[in-house]
Amino acid sequence: MAAVQDERYARQTQLEGFGKAGQERLAQALVLVVGVGGLGCASSPWLVRAGVGRLVVVDPGVVDRPDLGRQLLYTDADIGRPKVTAAVAALRKMNPLVEVDGLQLAVSAENIAVIAQRADVLLDGTDAVAPRLAMNAYGVQSGKPVVFGGAVGWAGSVLTVAPGLPCRECVFADTPPSALCSEAGVAGPVVGWVGAVQAVEVLRLLLGLPLPEGGSLQTVDFWHQTTRRLLVRRRVDCPVCGLGAV
Ligand SMILES: [Zn+2]
What we know:
By secondary structure, the protein is an alpha/beta fold. It has a single domain (2-231), classed as NAD(P)-binding Rossmann-like Domain (Rossmann fold), CATH 3.40.50.720. It has ten helices and eight strands. It has an eight-stranded mixed beta sheet, sandwiched between helices. Helix 4 packs parallel to helix 5 (83-94) and helix 4 (38-50) crosses helix 10 (188-207). It is globular, with a radius of gyration of 17 Å. The N and C termini lie far apart (50 Å).
C-alpha cells in the first residue's frame, strides 16, 4: 500500500518544498471548501488528487444548466441534483485515499464555528457576501487560514488571509460587492485560473511554505490579458482584525 501511495504522489513529492514529509502533512489535513460552484469545482480536484487527508464540501444549491459551462465536476445527468452530492461522487472517484464528504447547507456567521471546527484551512468557493464575511471573521478569530477567491466577467482574484496578514475586510472594505456571475456572466476559464491558484495557496499553507510578506492580492484580467500581484496592507482601524476589533 505504501508503495502504491509513493507511486501516486511521485511527481509532487520530488518537488522542492514537498517530499515525503510534505505528503504526510497533507495526509493529516482537513480542508473545508465552502461552495462548489465554479471555484469549488476548479480547486477541489487538485486538493483531492494531491492527497489531502480529508476534504469537506459545503453548498446549499442544486446543479443548474447554466452551471455546466464552468463547473467541471458536473454533467447534464446532474441537473437538479444537490451540488454536494454530485461533487462528492465525482471527487471520490479521483483518489480512493482521500475521504470526501459533503454538507448541503449555507455557511453563515451562526454555523461556521461548528462546520469549520476540525478544518485546518478554509477555501472560499462562494460568490455571496454573508458566507465570506463569516469565513473572514472566523479565520481571524481562530487563526485558521482562509483562501478567498473571486471571479466575474473576464477577471478574477485570490487573497489568502492568515495570522499576521491583512484580512479580507482590510482589503475590500471600501470596494462595493462585485456583481454576481448570474447577473454579469463569467468566462469559464477564469474560474479555472482562480481555482488553481487557490489550490496552490492551500497546498503552500499545508506544506508550511512561506507566505508573501505583508500579504498580496493575486489578480487576473483575461480581457486585458494581465496578471498581477498587488501588495495589500492591514488597516489599524479594521473592524475585524484591527486594533478597534472587538
Ligand atoms: Zn482586517
